[in-house]
Amino acid sequence: MQVLYSRWIEQKDSYEQRMEDLISLFNYILMQVEGDIEEALEWMQYVDQKQPLFSEDLTMQDFVDELKRRGYIEPDGEGGLIVTPKGNQRIRKDALNDIFLGMRKSAFGMHETPHLGSGVERVSETKQFRFGDAPSNIDLTSTLKNVFKRTGIEEFDLQEDDVEVYETEHMTSAATVLMLDISHSMVLYGEDRITPAKQVALALCELIQSRYPKDRLDILLFGDDARQISLTELPFVNVGPYHTNTRQGLRLARSLLKRSGSANKQIFMVTDGKPSAIFEESGRIYKNSFGLDPKIVNKTLDEAVACRRERIVISTFMVARDPYLVNFVEDLTKANNGRAYFTGLGKLGEYVLIDYIRNRRKEVR
Questions:
Q1: What DSSP string runs through 3-58?
Q2: Rounded average pLDDT over 101-106
Q3: Burial grade of 181 (CB within 10 A; 0-12, 13-18, 19 or more)
Q4: Which of 259, 106, 50 is nearest to 175 (CA)?
């Protein structure tokens, strides 16, 4: 029997790849329907009618069964389905993969400072062994070379001065507060800005948890008021009929960072609008949606200065380019000695995550 071999061609439409694509689509829809699994599946059925997603060998029921088998969803005990912690993590991983897809590898890094010290991350340089250096960092090749150079191969006589160890970089930890704008403008004029902003937040959370487990991350939402949320709530938050109380968001962030005890403190604020509300001393909320109200702006800038005095750097990521909004953010950045990025939604995640890693290369004194 004659066997003919031909060039192997990757089967992009394999069952496993189709399943992965469907799960990613499901997770994306899930973020838009506030975690309602039944509604997300209904939307997938609607899409299937327009552009076939399922087939005889991969039905909708097969897909739901696979989600259960992988532990992404489970019964809620009342006849419905809920997202599991494992499913929540998968949503964050999908967000991280989407954002880093196509980015250069050089964008990644560890949380090193520019200083050599008693850290845990090796570098290629070596130094002479000193008391207190970790034995696990001994450079065996350089050590043996020093011995043989001094005594020759025949008479092996290891002495302390022969031992060399790898230098290590001092690794820092950081406390970060992520502020997410949930004011009505995030869905104004039919443009969905909240879903990409949530993807950024989820990717950042997954990056910190998987690569920098000693870091602290707090998440808060700000609209008329500000409130802290948990990581499991983040994928399913939505906007409301709110104004933008940036000052209150910064106040809560500053309070959270005070309690962190970290020397490296920073705020990432993702927003698309101007501050349009503050709380007065009486506790009454003062709102003004028209233009830039000096009363609101000045109080917000005062809070940015308070952050600066506590060595909290604010990085503002604007998804709008209106000239008067740009001017406000520039004023806020100047008051805080922080950073500002004016980006489109497509680049937002890349800038957030690259800046997070770069910022950690600076020592806070």
A1: ---------TT-HHHHHHHHHHHHHHHHHHTTT-HHHHHHHHHHHHHHS---BTTB
A2: 46
A3: buried
A4: 259
- End of a domain among 83, 107, 135? 83
pTM of this prediction? Answer: 0.73
Are residue 161 and residue 303 in the same domain, yes or no? no
Provide the 3-class DSSP secondary structure of residue 199. helix
Q: How far is Cα 303 from Cα 291, in angstroms, rounded to an integer?
A: 20
Report long-range pairs for 120-127 (Cβ below 8 Å, ≥24 apart).
Answer: 120/168, 120/171, 121/168, 121/169, 121/171, 122/166, 122/167, 122/168, 122/169, 123/166, 123/167, 123/168, 123/169, 124/166, 125/166, 125/167, 126/164, 126/165, 126/166, 126/167, 127/164, 127/165, 127/167
Question: CA–CA separation, 327 vs 19, rounded Å?
Answer: 46
- Is position 312 within any domain? yes
Residues 158 and 241 in one domain: no
> Within this chain, do residues 157 and 277 fall inside the same structural domain, yes or no?
no
96 belongs to a structural domain: no
* Rounded Cα gap, residues 94 and 17, in angstroms: 14
329-339 confidence digits (pLDDT tens):
899 999 999 98
SS3 call for 332 = helix
- Do residue 201 and residue 146 come from a single domain? no
Q: Are residues 73 and 127 in the same domain?
A: no
In the chain, the number of structural domains is 3
| Span 265-307, pLDDT tens digits | 999 998 887 899 999 999 999 999 888 899 999 999 999 999 9
Q: Do 215 and 261 share a domain, yes or no?
A: yes
Residues 124 and 264 in one domain: no
Confidence band, pLDDT 50/70/90 cuts, at residue 2:
low
Tell me which residue has tokens 């850290």.
119
Q: Are residues 278 and 142 in the same domain?
A: no
Q: How many CB atoms lie within 10 A of CB 152?
A: 10
The domain boundary, picked from 170, 193, 209, lies at 170
Domain containing residue 123: 115-170
Tokens of 358: 């770069």
